[in-house]
Every structure is written in C-alpha cells, then in structure tokens.
Amino acid sequence: MLRQRIKAGLLAVLAATGIAAASLIPTATPAMADECTSAPAWRQGANYVTGDIVRFTDGNYYIAEHPNPGYSPTISTWFWNPHTCSGGGTPNPNPNPTGFVVSEAQFNQMFPSRNSFYTYKGLTDAISAFPAFAKTGSDTVRKQEAAAFLANVSHETGGLVHIVEQNTANYSHYCDRTQPYGCPAGQSAYYGRGPIQLSWNFNYKAAGDYLGIDLLNNPSRVQNESAVAWKTGLWYWNTQSGPGTMTGHAAMVNGSGFGQTIRSINGSLECNGGNPAQVQSRVNNYTRFAQILGVPTGSNLYC
User: Fold this and answer.
1) pLDDT tens string 181-201
2) Residue 107 or 14, more confident
3) Residue 5 is inside which H or E element, if any?
4) Which domains, from first to last, does the chain contain?
5) Are the C-beta atoms of 245 and 211 separated by less than 8 Å?
6) Which of the residues 105, 169, 275, 291 has the least number of beta carbons within 10 Å of its own beta carbon?
7) Is 225 designated active site?
8) How far apart are CA 33 and CA 49, in angstroms?
C-alpha cells in the first residue's frame, strides 16, 4: 500500500513538471544475445572447462558438463550434453546446404594445395548420383565413409594435385583389345585420370555405362570436367570391389574398416605386406581427415 502511494505521488510530481514518466521508468534489460552466436567451433585436443559451449561439426551445439581435453561431444557424452540455445531450438542444424557431411571449409582444410580442377561443387554435384554415399548409417559412420573415400583419393592424387597419371610410360598399357568394343579412342587413351585414377578401356566403358556418359569414346572428359571426374571416383568406390571382396562403401558402412577399402583399390600390391609404406600413407590421411570431421577412425585400419 505504501509503495502504491509513493508511486502515485511520484507520477503526480512528474506530471506537474512536464517530465514524461516513461523516461524515468527503467526499460527492460535487452535480451541476452544468443550465446551460441559466439560459440567457437569444437576442436579436437583443445582444453574445455565446465560450461563451455561449442559448435560441433554436425552443426549442433554442446555444453561441457565436465572439463575435458577436446573429446568428441557425440562420443564422450559424460563430458558433453546437447545444448539448446537461449534463442530457442538448435540454430543452424544443417549448416551445409549441400547435405554432404564434409563442409567446404573442411574440404579446403583437407586439401590446402589442391588443384583448382577438383572443386567442392564438382564433388557435391557428383554425389547426387550416389544417394547412399556418406548417407548410410549413423552420423559417425557417414563421416567415417567420407573421410575414408577422401583419404584414398588424396593418396591417389598427391593431395588432389594430379588429374592424370604421372607415369606416361604406362599409357599404352591400358588398352585390352580382347574386349569386343576395343579401344576406339586410341591405344594410349585410357590412362589413369581423376580422383581414383580411372584406367583401362573396360573400366571407362563400365563407368560410362553406369553414369550414362560415353567415356569409352570420350575418356578425356574425366580430366576436363570436374563433376565427371568425381563421378568416376564415386562409381568405383560405391560399385566396384576391385581386387578385394567388397566395395569401399560397403567396407565402411558394415564395419569391416578402412583397411578393406585399401584392399578394394590396390589389393596385394599394397596389402599383405605388398607395400606397407603406401598403406601407411593412406591410413595417415584417413586419421587426419577423421580428426577434422570429429569422429574416431574405428578399427581394422590396415590390410
């Protein structure tokens, strides 16, 4: 009651003096900016304390429940909890409009010296022809598959630098004239090209038939068109077991492990002691890319 009388008296004084009451009534404190807008991207190996908020690679936000040395929020759930931002909901749940689990920034981080031919857009355009690629299983499995594919691609092309096979002395070897269609583009036209170095006339024929592109007669499209090049790499990864027993895609989604993807590409040339240094190079790439994507490598890394 006393408070009401004081307030009424104050308003009467303000009215007499011509001062607007609203000018002296405290305004509401501006809403605190959404704490997620300034949240840094999660980094493996960074030290976090309780209460830290990070934006993970899946586009979601997490808050540290306990101090930790950069454990993955999607694996070490005792250390992290999903965080709903003050603005309501989880902002930007899909930060990558392409739908690919590797963002363009992560792609550039993986391949800092890549040839401009190997564009991110070329890759994402090519992925549309393979709807199961990096879209099968859990978020972790999807990222592991993307990391595995790109790790092998990196090894095959020197970090996405080389578009064509560097040893020109091999060029004339890739024509199998026992095939009924022969080598219409020429004896030396079917050398290695693209991210998994498509070679041999029968592989150009098979990839072209699958993709609806006449690569048997026009093999140069693989070195001239980024999306076509990426499609041939994805064709091999998703449909061919090569000297192995399963495709690269199958190896990653059924839990067989990264080592089996190496076997499907180069078989005993590298596996079973064939060339351990080459195997290690692929494993090193995969480990680094998995770290960039914030996922564990899984087991069975070697073949």
Assistant:
1) 999 999 999 999 999 999 999
2) 107
3) helix 2-17
4) 32-95 (2.10.10.20), 140-167+226-293 (1.10.530.10)
5) no
6) 169
7) no
8) 21
